[in-house]
Amino acid sequence: MIYGSKRIAAVAIKMALTETREEEQNEKKLFSEQGIKTVAVDCGGEYLATVKKIVERSVVAAKREGVIREIHSEEGAVAGATREALSQIMPKAIGLNVGGKLGIARQNDHISVAVFLGIGLLHLDEVSIGLAHRTIA
Predict the structure, then answer these.
(1) pTM above 0.85, yes or no
(2) 115 and which of 36, 56, 58, 130 could share a cystine (Cβ 3.0–4.6 Å)?
(3) Which domain of life is it from (predicted)?
(4) Which residues are registered as beta bridge partners of 46?
């Protein structure tokens, strides 16, 4: 079945919310059976210092898992969507440590990146989610 951007965004969020590798693999298998390619990546550190690493890791993971091909437009779509999702979190996270996961989902020309992060200062934690969508022709 072919889904639109809303469904693919929801899948990316579900991948970002997985708590264990086993859960991540089960979701990945389930979505694969529906024709949706997915990947999830753990991330964390001081927010500003890790933005570049998170973007790089998202592109590398998407290529490694076959979500995107190693071509400029697809790599750029993932990098751009990841930066957009991270920018939505920035007002809460700037200057603080973050930890969590990002999820990427793709079907045909729809690709979404969701970032789910815990934002911490001592024991006072906040959570935030960022989401972005791109199309790949």
Answers:
(1) yes
(2) 130
(3) Bacteria
(4) 97
